[in-house]
Request: fold
Amino acid sequence: MADKSGNRADRPKRVPMPERPPEERRNDWDEVPRGYTPDQARQEASRCLLCKKSPCIEGCPVGIDIPGFVKLIADGKFEEAADRILLVNALPAVCGRVCPQETQCEILCVLGKKGEPLAIGNLERFAADWKREQGTCPVPTPPDPSGFKVAVVGSGPAGLTCAGELVGRGHAVTIFEAFHKPAGVLVYGIPEFRLPKSIVADEVKRLEARGVQIRTNTVVGKLDTVDELLEEYDAVFVGVGAGAPMFLDIPGEELLGVYSANEYLTRVNLMRAYDRERADTPILRSKRVAVIGGGNVAMDSARTGLRLGAEEVTVVYRRSRAEMPARAAEVHHAEQEGIRFHLLAAPVRILGDERGWVIGIECIRMELGEPDESGRRRPLPIPDSEFTLEVDSVVVAIGNRPNPIVPSTTPGMETSRRGTIVADEKTGRTTKEGVWAGGDIVTGAATVISAMGAAQAAARDIDAYLRSPEPRPWEIETCSTPGDGDLA
Reply:
């Protein structure tokens, strides 16, 4: 019998994603979840109520037709399901793995009112993986060239999405990437065991096959400025993310063995520092690691430290488990693999030996007070509750802020007090003519899918702008008051 929401008490339970056992995976870099089999995918997809109003779509920043692709999976039409997703999401295999569906689309799933929501992320991953593994990803026929050129600064989720949207509309697109490999945070920030780099590489190759040009080792703001790009390109999209690390501002952060999570993960993910025999960039091999923070980056750092050979890894977080911003799956995987958690604790200083190396971290216990601006209860220190953890390295994973290099070298582009670029929420337009921005450089550190949604909106507005019959400011001929020479 159905309740008022259309849910049924006897509806099958959510199909869990098969995973590799913790004792095996904690010693290597291979992906943890194995993915659904076709039978498991069809079984999970069959749980969907196919709601007419589809609240789940409202929770997706790029507006995927979730009931549509799920119904196709339930019917065994896997390729058609992937094609339905690809209409609005160029990175479904990525989003199926790293997006926080539990706080976006799945939290609005009607099934979740009485039981477990549909595993939308797992199904998205299945469809994308199935299409790629079957080799049925032909390059679409290119549209007629528009004659316009667009520069995209940054090759992370926002940059890749914007480039894909624009090349699909006939524009010539060039991506400028500061690192030696494209894909931004997808390659330097997210470990292999959570997002295999081969998947990201496939998405980049597909864009290049469609005609997108990618220039690596190019730091816009140093080699070229946005103004200089505007001399060659008809529009510029800035999607450089928020890659500058934040620190604790406590004594001892200058000690040897203290890393920002950005450096720690970049050395491992992008520069393969775990490969001692062949890596050019080394990383400290520690016995006891403390990771400060409670988000996905903290979980990635902790699990990375374990795989680098640490005997003990401890996450220190100033709030309780309920307030942790990390995905529930990432916390669960960390706990399974043996990561320790010191909750309601905050570091006050890092301790070092006479040679300047980390030997410990002093923390203070916290209690939760009234909610702060984030809506979570504010952590307050408990007097005289200090304690010390013996560690030989510390990874600070408390968030990122925008790198100021592009905004500081672009006159006329307004920034906020946080250093983010001010851009229209619906169109991505900045205060500088011909320049758009989207993703973390506008919002601050957020999710992959939200950056993609902003990039889609910006691409649509860029296309409309370029095709508008109205002349752009630099195309308008100006008339000056005749001078003496003009009267001759």
User: Anything to note?
Assistant: Residues 167 and 173 are 6 Å apart (CA to CA). The chain is about 30% helix and 15% strand.
